[in-house]
Design brief:
This protein has 228 residues and is mainly alpha-helical. It has one domain (5-227). The protein has 5 helices and 2 strands, in the order H-H-H-H-E-E-H. The chain has helices spanning 5-37, 49-72, 75-115, 125-138, 180-227, and strands at residues 167-170, 173-176. The longest helix has 48 residues, at 180-227.
Length: 228
Amino acid sequence: MAVSRCIKYCLFFFNLLFWISGCIILGVSIYLKVTKDSNKVFPVSIPGVDLLIAIGVIIMVLGFLGCCGAIKENKCMLLLFFIGLLAIFILLLAAGILGAVDKNKSKELIKEATTKLLPLSSQPEETQTDIQKLEMEGKCCGVVNGPSDWGSSIPSSCDCKDTTAECQTVGGQSRYSQPCSEYLEKLIKENLKIALGIAFAIAILLIFGMIFSMVLYCQIGKMDVSTA
């Protein structure tokens, strides 16, 4: 009994997808991590991002292992590949649960971190500069209550230059009305959706990979028995 060439090369193709998807999830996760670390004022991160980085690295290694196991028809490598895929699937499930559970925790951390900064005018110059950069990026003003967080000295970073944003008139000037804490919450939710979307796509590939690897493993086992 010969090993099915169709199954063999389908597994090789899926392993190539695994390797590419591992590169993607690793790249996106590192980007989310770097984006978080670049924010010195609000040290909050996407829930489960560290776990996704580890998953991306392991998927890249497993993709290479699966390709070699499929081409060489090596039962040991295929079995290790299957076990590895199963472990990654469990980790992805854990990352999804962690992201869902910690979503509200991130909101609480943002609120706690921003409240400590009030009043903003009393913060060191470096901290005020970082906040103003965030305000220009997020089209927001203040951190908790809006422009009033700055007191009477509202910086130009709060000037409402985008007519599509929510604005209010303060001291005769049009200012962004959305506090930056709300912007950060929206940013985390959007990034979390991206991360979970990628994780879901990877999970589907993992299921196909486990099926093909086990079918090929069983075929090699039957071939060994028939030739014994």
